[in-house]
Amino acid sequence: MGQKINPLGFRLGTTQSHRSFWFAQTKNYSVGLQEDEKIRNCIKNYVQKNRRISSGFEGIARIGIQKRIDLIQVIIHIGFPNLLMEGQTRGIEELQMNVQKELHSVNRRLNIAITRIEKPYGQPNILAEYIALQLKNRVSFRKSMKKAIELTEQTDTKGIQVQIAGRIDGKEIARVEWIREGRVPLQTIRAKIDHCSYTIRTIYGVLGIKIWIFVNEFGYL
């Protein structure tokens, strides 16, 4: 069960909450879903083009979206300081203009807020991005996974599992390699699990990175 269903969707309403909060009729649901995807892609592309970090981190842990009749509220949870975190309203205003143009929405206002994460390496998206950068720089996949696990030891996580699939190290036959440290109980709903799937394109082909982080375990109700 732990590998046949998304750990986040499996725990919605118990230890996980939705990343998007809005309501739509059945015939308009697909339009709202595509709108969310446009917002997230536009933000990631803007941060990637305007980042000031030498290591190449985007540092976006997650993007929350809340929609009302006349307002779209976007909250960006970011782990590392970049152009958006230096107190300059110019970067946020420029980002709002880019997203507004992408949406082609005149009747709704757009508001973007930035939230800094204290322990970024406790977020699976940031860890997956770190591993992807290491693999692009021809670092061994085992060394990259072990380094990612060492970074999570600075946080309060109780366990982590990292998996890489594809033509690892340029081998002709694709395979799956994984490593685990601590407990990762995927079969219990009361366990709060953070999960992400990350795709990286290399000269050998596409590699898939999956990370499970065991944050906490809640008692029985």
Automatic annotation (TrEMBL):
Gene Ontology MF term list: RNA binding; structural constituent of ribosome
PROSITE patterns: RIBOSOMAL_S3
UniProt-listed Pfam families: Ribosomal_S3_C
Record GO biological process: translation
Primary location group: plastid
Domain called Small ribosomal subunit protein uS3 C-terminal: residue spans: 131-213
Gene Ontology CC terms, in alphabetical order: chloroplast; cytosolic small ribosomal subunit
Matches recorded under InterPro entries: KH_dom-like_a/b, KH_sf_prok-type, Ribosomal_S3_C_sf, Ribosomal_uS3, Ribosomal_uS3_bac-typ, Ribosomal_uS3_C, Ribosomal_uS3_CS
Assembly with partners or alone: Part of the 30S ribosomal subunit.
Descriptive protein name: Small ribosomal subunit protein uS3c
